Amino acid sequence: MLPAQAKDPALGTTLFTVYEAYLSPAQEPGEESETPKLLEKSLGATAPSTPREQRKSRGHGQLRFSKDLSKAYVDVQIEGVDAANILMFHIHCGPPGVLGPVVVDLGEQGDLSKTLAGGKLSLELTNKNITYIRDMKGMKPGLPESCPAELGFAAQTKTLAGLEYLARKGVLYFNLHTRAHTYYGEMRGQIYAAQP
Fold first, then answer.
1. End-to-end alpha carbon distance in the chain
2. What's one Pfam family here (predicted)?
3. Tell me, what's the pLDDT at 17?
4. Residues of the chain with pLDDT under 50
5. Maximum C-alpha span of the chain
6. pTM of the predicted model, to two decimals?
7. What are φ and ψ of residue 149, in 5° steps?
8. Which stretches of the chain are DSSP H helices?
C-alpha cells in the first residue's frame, strides 16, 4: 500500500470553488406593480417602474470560495443601469422564482452608487458578512433574515461554509434593487456552479 499523500494546507487559501450567475430582469418573479400594498409606502420607490421585458439591465456575478472556506470573493459586472439609481444589492436565499431573505448585503461596505459607478463591484467576504439575526423581537421565529442551513431546520446560516453549501444546492441569487424596482428588484441572477 502507498502512504497517504496529504496536500499542503496553505493551498486552502489559494484554490477556489467557483459559482456564477447571469443577471437579468426576466428572472424576477414579478412586476413592481404587484408589490404588496402593505409594503409600497415603506419601500419608497421614487421612480416609475419598467416592465421586465423592456429593461436593458444585464449582469454577471461570480462568487468564489477559498477551499478552506475562510474567505469568499464577489466579482460583479453590470450594464444598462444608472448607478445613481441603485439602492441595494444583495445575495438572497431562495430557489428560482421565489423571494427569499438576505444572506449577504453587498452594499454594507460603502455607497453602491459610487461603488458601482463603473459597472463593477469586487468584494472580499468573511463570516462577519453573513446576515444573522440575533434578536428575533417582532419577527416570526420561522422567518429569520438568513437562510436555514437545511430546509426544515431553524438554524440559520452563519458561516461561509454554510453559504457555500447553499450555493452548491442552487438556492442563492444576486438581486439588484433600484429606485424604480425596490421590491422584486431591477434584475436577479440565480447562482450555480460555474461551468469550466
1. 34
2. CHRD
3. 94
4. 135-145
5. 70
6. 0.85
7. -60, -30
8. 37-43, 112-115, 160-169
- pLDDT above 70 covers a percentage of the chain that reads 83
User: Which residue segment(s) compose the domain that 87 sits in?
Assistant: 15-193
7, part of any domain: no
b/e per residue, 114-125, with b = 16+ CB within 10 A? ebbeeeebebeb
Indicate whether 5 belongs to any domain.
no
> How far apart are alpha carbons 55 and 108 in whole angstroms?
26
**Residue 77 within a domain:** yes
pLDDT at 13: 83
Residue 184 has phi, psi (to 5 degrees) of: -75, -40
Count of the separate structural domains present in the chain: 1
Tens of pLDDT, residue by residue over 44-88, are: 666 678 888 999 999 999 999 999 999 999 999 999 999 999 999
Rounded-to-integer distance, Cα 87 and Cα 163, Å? 23
**How far is C-alpha 182 from the geometric centre of its chain's CA atoms?**
15
Per the listing, cell 459610487 goes with 114
Query: How remote is the C-alpha of 165 from its chain's centroid?
Result: 14
Phi/psi of residue 158, each to 5°?
Answer: -125, -10
